[in-house]
């Protein structure tokens, strides 16, 4: 799916009376096509299906439907235009788009002309990136892949990184020979990731629109990871705050080094913990214990993390990858399709609710990011990071990036 | 509710303008009437009520409504036929059916003729079975009943067994002198149950339609057990995989012998763990700990089961029934109606979601059962079981029936 | 918001074609305006917004909409009147009321005249109470408030007390200098609260309508407490059954004295545990462990309460307030807005579901309260309490008030 293929990618209505919806996809980054489109078609009761999109492509579409008119057989009735907006994960594209239209048809049956407006928020290619850069993928015997993230000095997570991660996992999911993935830091320092790049959150240097794209990109990746068909292991060497913690919580297993620390420390920077990140921690260690940690923004050290169930094991750094690999091998011993289906069944309600929350968060979060107090806190944090040359001390989570 | 009574059982509309819906119930098995029916009536805005059905009867109805026409006072308008399907637990029959129609009326108000098609999936009689067979009921002083299941050699669960269990519990619920029930294995071997009969899952020997009935029958029983007004105790002697584990998880208390083992080991046979069985285990021991066990299909031995909260107590086999009885007596000391209502309130959302999932699972599950790889795994399991003369070793869950 | 201001408080439609809905609020108690109103307006597709209501006012509105007529452009169609009822928390008033009407418009589009009937169940003033009485508020340096409840002999909770508590917390929430609140008993005896006043539950001395108001008042307070922007600490000296336990469970932290005991012991009086009180206990200690306690109505003593996570700390009575203050100070160290937003995000789904349950419970609960067996149990409890001069022994929860 590159620029040249984009013309063949499309949404097509399968009703006999429907018109083809032309979709123009244009690449939004060197990583591959990430496109915005807007299309419409008259669909007299037909169902849409997304065709010719790569199986593993991840994209989120905001749709709205206008019922332009509704004329009865013997009389006439004009419904005022109404619209309904929903974001879909089109990972299971045909199914989901059908669902939406089925629901809509309940309200707009008849001969009404239904005009669909679809707005694609994000799509990630499954092909190899033009420049894989700091996110590298290595495969080991037995179908286990290792994704190494090495963006010096602290793996700060910007829009580009979240999209590279999404592309890496999507690529592995599309490869039938792969059954497990281990995510590991390739940094010189003992840091899994320092969390989101503050420049994505610092209002004077970004926009609410950029923030919305950033927010969807990171959470789209996290949802993908959480319901991945792959066995997923986070191998955590060192500090793992905020966004790094979210990646870990979305994985099936978490292995940490003794020097490690983990937490969603957003509150310390004056930013709310993303709702579903907090709920995810509650699923791992119970809602009350999670709240106690989340509301103070406290980082949990390795020993406590093991005791409260936040990590599965604590092992020395030199054994980290070996234990992660052994964990993956052990987890892969049973029939893969049944295991993946069971995992999906157990997590699907949570992930569906998370995706339904996508359109809500950006405006809510931006209210905090654009407030003078949050801007001041972020400026303080950036000054401290700058004076340390971008370093980050694991035990001082107040200075963490998010 | 036998064949003779079936003519009196019916769905009747309580609107003055409504027509009586005649329902013909015909017995589907020697255990009592299990009927399929299809009926319709013009219901101009009226509400349905299910009448003359035994209080404890358990049945699931798939309904669909057709709005055949809708004519206004001064004009005319014809809505195209639409349908909506919902499965109901008619345990609280009047309430639920009203609800469905109330919702429907929001969409089909007016003078439209609403045609109801109802399709009864399963109904269990509350009377004594013509042949109680291997599921026997004994009552003890203090209103405690013991349901013994003894279908040699391993209590393999087929459609017949799930319906007998449903009938047994329904009968006890309908008897006001009964306040608690203990479910126990009467097998010669140390086996609570080896789980579902593989013949119900082996695609070449069943059909997708039979599987759907089987699936609804087992889960209808499990939901009934989970929200029963009775105090429920599973007394588990020996191996308790899959379906037997589901019965235990739906009970209020689980008492196990030291030789016992418990788990939902479906993944080992290449079949997904039924969604709500897995969620149920998560409610007992936390979602993360449950996932770790479920995704590997691991059986948990007695000591660990006690430690992680999967069972309430581990006691020698010779004390099993005495401890189960004492547990039931203790739990029955408080006012029964308040206790049952509290239990129902705490579990109703879960059970309602579970029932709403009934129509979804069979087609999803059948995709796995009819796949060549699952068929091959089941054939291997059946060969191993056959070579052992139907025996089952608790410590070898890979050979378990489901 | 007093009697004089009530005339300015109103619901106003923001559509150009809408009529102003006049709302007459009249004070219902010396504590401030608690009003019932009924209003209507023709709203051709407009959205309502609640204006000029104090930010912190808590009120619950039961609304119903009548579609009186629906006339099309070229034809005519008359929809029969239908109604839909929903309770709203108007804390985020504008948002919620819009939502309701948006949903309604889906069903009643067109030129129909939509008649809104709104019935305000409870509104609490944010100003100082005319007579604060036995609920006193004291503020400490650092923005920490202490709410002391001292209604001798056992802080029995009647409608008046729940409304005073709601008013006290609402007042603190409206004061930007306050960041935390500690709730403590000022009784002579070691009792946090003996729970609801039996006279509110004893059917011969109350009415179903009074009970409905009582039920909404207490749960409206509890929901407010649970999602309060304030850090909340329950400092529990002595017995803490039922309603007192509910207050504790809604708080962020629970500190208890060694003589303390806690539980939702409703079942012992023949009354179901309120659904969301029970679910709340499940969130703190897990659903299975909570059910075991709830279904027997057992009171948990301090040591066990600490062990199972029902309380955060057990400290001698002379240190109780100091530890509660230290807990509040510690919890307040991080940015308040981010902490409050995170807390709200984590609890909002639970609180929203709880509020949606408000209209359901009163008729359900009244069925129990008006049954001869519950009346007899309550009469026995009142006789025992009367013979002890209103005393309550913590270890005898069967004699507890609710």
UniProtKB/TrEMBL annotation, chains A, B, C:
GO terms for biological process: fatty acid beta-oxidation. CDD domains: crotonase-like. The keyword Nucleus does not apply. This is Enoyl-CoA delta isomerase 1, mitochondrial. The keyword Nucleotide-binding does not apply. Belongs to the enoyl-CoA hydratase/isomerase family. Keywords: Isomerase. GO terms for molecular function: isomerase activity. One of its GO terms (cellular component) is mitochondrion. It comes from Tetrabaena socialis. PANTHER family: ENOYL-COA DELTA ISOMERASE 1, MITOCHONDRIAL (PTHR11941:SF45), ENOYL-COA HYDRATASE-RELATED (PTHR11941).
